[in-house]
């Protein structure tokens, strides 16, 4: 009997991936920091990039290292948000992120992109965009894989405000440019629902079928 192929299993996982708030420091039973690290590694083994350039990089922060990131982000933003009333909302968000179990930092390695521009000069102007696409796919795959394990997550972008701190604290190469912070943790008893999407008929056209 021929194998039965279906995309439904994939879309079930895709539907489980959405921004979850608030997160907790307690990961689901059986999900360890080693398992999270393995998921990130598998993400890199199974996510494509244009010309197989592989410009994406990642750093996984757990425990005190994760807390250190969000303590610094909080102090950086406090220096910018002077109004006490306006600060309350920002402070609450910082508490949400620090209250999670960890963060995956995603980067683009500009040295890789520069090398591809030199090697394939005809497409030089395209490679920065393609690098962004590749890193976005890595973020999506990791996020979806975490959701499949019952881990909640949300994607943040506090770069470039925290770039220098991240680089100095975790010995990040100067050619790595921070792209996003994937915050992960245990899912709460009551969590935010996935945001609605536009009706597919409004945004997708098909011809010739």
Overview of the structural elements:
The mean pLDDT is 95. The chain has helices at residues 8-16, 33-45, 63-80, 84-98, 110-119, 127-148, 163-169, 200-203; strands spanning 56-62, 102-109, 152-156, 176-185. The chain has a 4-stranded antiparallel sheet with strand order 1-2-4-3. It has one domain: NADH Oxidase (3-Layer(aba) Sandwich). The protein is globular and about 55 Å long. It has 8 helices and 4 strands. Helix content is 47%, strand content 14%. With 209 residues, the protein is of the alpha+beta class.
Detail the topology: elements first, then pairings.
Elements: H1 8-16, H2 33-45, E1 56-62, H3 63-80, H4 84-98, E2 102-109, H5 110-119, H6 127-148, E3 152-156, H7 163-169, E4 176-185, H8 200-203
Antiparallel strand pairs: 1-2, 2-4, 3-4
Q: Give the ordered list of helices and strands.
A: HHEHHEHHEHEH
Any idea what the shape is?
globular
**Number of helices, where a helix is a run of at least 4 consecutive DSSP H or I residues:** 8
Number of strands: 4
The CATH architecture classification is: 3-Layer(aba) Sandwich
CATH superfamily: NADH Oxidase
What is the structural class? alpha+beta
Give the CA-CA distance, first to last residue: 29 Å
Return the CATH topology: NADH Oxidase
Major sheet strand order: 1-2-4-3
Major sheet, described briefly? 4 strands, antiparallel
Pfam families: Nitroreductase
Protein name: Nitroreductase domain-containing protein
Main location: cytoplasm
Subcellular location: Cytoplasm; Nucleus
């Amino acid at each position: 009997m021929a194998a039965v192929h279906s995309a439904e299993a994939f879309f079930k996982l895709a539907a489980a991936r959405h921004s979850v708030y608030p997160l907790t420091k307690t990961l689901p039973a059986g999900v360890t920091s080693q398992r999270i690290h393995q998921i990130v590694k598998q993400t890199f083994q199974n996510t494509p990039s244009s010309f197989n350039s592989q410009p994406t990089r990642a750093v996984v922060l757990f425990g005190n290292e994760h807390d250190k990131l969000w303590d610094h982000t909080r102090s950086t933003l406090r220096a910018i948000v002077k109004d006490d009333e306006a600060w309350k909302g920002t402070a609450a968000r910082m508490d949400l992120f620090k209250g999670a179990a960890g963060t995956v930092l995603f980067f683009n390695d500009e040295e890789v992109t520069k090398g591809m521009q030199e090697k394939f000069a005809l497409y030089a102007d395209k490679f920065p965009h393609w690098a962004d696409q590749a890193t976005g796919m890595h973020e999506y795959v990791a996020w979806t894989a975490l959701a499949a394990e019952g881990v909640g997550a949300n994607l943040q972008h506090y770069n470039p405000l925290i770039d220098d701190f991240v680089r100095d604290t975790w010995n990040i190469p100067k050619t790595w440019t921070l792209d996003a912070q994937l915050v992960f943790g245990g899912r709460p008893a009551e969590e935010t629902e996935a945001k609605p999407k536009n009706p597919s008929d409004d945004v997708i056209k098909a011809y010739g079928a």
